[in-house]
Amino acid sequence: MRATTDWREKYKALEAEYEKLLAENKTLKEELESLREQLQKTKKPERPAASEAPSTLEEAPAPITTTEELRETLKRLVTKIAMILQAEKCVIKLYDKETGELVAQPPAFGMTDEEVRMYRTRATQGISGEAFMSGQPIVVNDALSDPRTTKEFVGLLGIRNSLTVPLIVERRDEDGRVIDRISVGVLKVFNKRYGGKFTDEDVRLAIVLARSAASVIAQAKLYLEALEEKRQLEATLESMLVGVLAVNNRGRITVLNHVARQLLEIPPDNSVGADYKEVIKDDRVRELITKTLESGEELVEELAFNVGENERYFQVQTAPITGDNNEIIGEVTILSDITELKRLDQMKTDFVSHVSHELRTPLTSIKGFVATLLADTEGYYDLETRREFLQIIDQECDRLTRLINDLLNLSRIESGRALELILKPVNVVDVARKIIEIQKNYTSKHQFVLDVQGEVPTIIADEDKVDQILTNLISNAVKYSPNGGEVRVTIKEDPETGGVLTAVKDQGLGIPKDVLPRLFQRFYRVEGRKISGTGLGLYLTKHLVEAHGGKIWVESEEGKGSTFYFTLPPAPPQKEE
User: Fold this and answer.
1) DSSP SS3 for 163
2) In 143-153, which positions are buried (b, 16+ CB within 10 angstroms) versus exposed (e)?
3) Among 505, 50, 87, 433, CA closest to 250
4) Low-confidence winner among 225-234, 505-514, 534-543 (lowest mean pLDDT)
5) Across the beta sheet with 178-192, what order do the strands follow?
6) How crowded is residue 445: how many other Cβ atoms within 10 Å of its Cβ?
7) How far apart are CA 556 and CA 512, in angstroms?
8) If DSSP codes are grouped into helix, strand and coil, which group holds residue 538?
9) Distance of CA 290 to CAs 287, 293, 314, Å?
10) For 92-125, what is each residue's pLDDT tens digit?
């Protein structure tokens, strides 16, 4: 009689436990269904009315908007599932497309963060891989002896038995028919409590729970991925150096980055979603946008804008945005800063003009003196005068040769070909002394000083290129000190490399501090100075120095002269074969 009473009491206890589990299962299913409905609403947000201002790149609030919120959702899921299935451990593993692995997601029930971190398997291996690939649940009653669990860390995690259910997301058509099934991972529960084993009823219950969990997780991950893509797009737009502005076919601004906002002087607040005709004050840009929206034409114009205290030029491009049926659904405007390109174009124009002048001047002298000599058929000019004429012709020919060499070297540099060096021992002091003697013939206003400090080593270099470097710097010193003064050339051993350090100092106009960084650019010439030149001298000089493995720099103050320094190493660096 006592045994019957014990059996009835145990039956009532089990019945109460079963009712409790059913109630918890019902609560969880209701919670999952509620989350799924809320996420479904955020997946297709309602379109705002035309009169309302939509906020670009911003979506309606969603239940799961951060990774932390997804983590909390997973925590609730694994806890409920473990309670319902009476399991000691529960974890969700999701498929990582990049690595091809099933990766445990924190937090897990009954597992430490470290255990979760290491718990990952290939999607083609182990019990997890088999369930993921087959789409079928798998029960393992003796995990330690089952050969399929070798990749599952069963010993390390203390796993006795397990139930693995694939997480499958189903897509259905309007009639409710399944048109696609995608496996996103697996749900795993371990160690049935009270020493039990997972039953068929546990499997059926786990399939229902997994289906609901898969739906919630998949939609949450899709939302978070879309949110991350949106953030990356925003960051990309904001980091772009060009202005980007997009307008929809209702005339509302949908995209606007900081460059466009700053350039068009658009206030930071309430600009996205506003009518472009009210926000954009620049008539030229507004007219381009209107034309593109009305006609669907791609338009390009170069416009000048005041940026701070400077005027800059921008290429403004407008292009239509078309929908599936090629209807115009908006337009996009790109504003690209072309100030430097226009400046370079102007510099090239000036360069051609200067080169023409530089070529014409010596040619005029040569032509004039040759014509004079040819016309003197009666010997009017004595031998000394004729020799003077011939010396002038010779100097002008040298001047033409230097200019042509400059142009050839420019061509080599621009085409990416290295300047060829013909190497031999070079005494820089001797080269400088020769150039100074030549320069004395061109001026009577300047005093040249060659200051040799200590013993200067002989280096391995291209003597013609060294000659060209010193000629450019010394002739520049003369040219940019039109009132005369001292031109001092200082040469000594470079203490850093053991090569040669040379300084060319003048007492001329000096260089404004703000243009010093641009001084060695091609075609660049300091504005406002009526001194002839091509703008190539310092550009080529820099490349000639660097071709030897040396360095060049300048120290200057406007109105107080300039000093150009350059170093040449004992020998150029060896080229890699």
Assistant:
1) strand
2) beebeebeebb
3) 50
4) 225-234
5) 120-122, 101-109, 87-96, 178-192, 162-172, 138-140
6) 10
7) 8
8) helix
9) 5, 5, 19
10) 998 888 889 999 988 899 999 899 989 998 998 8
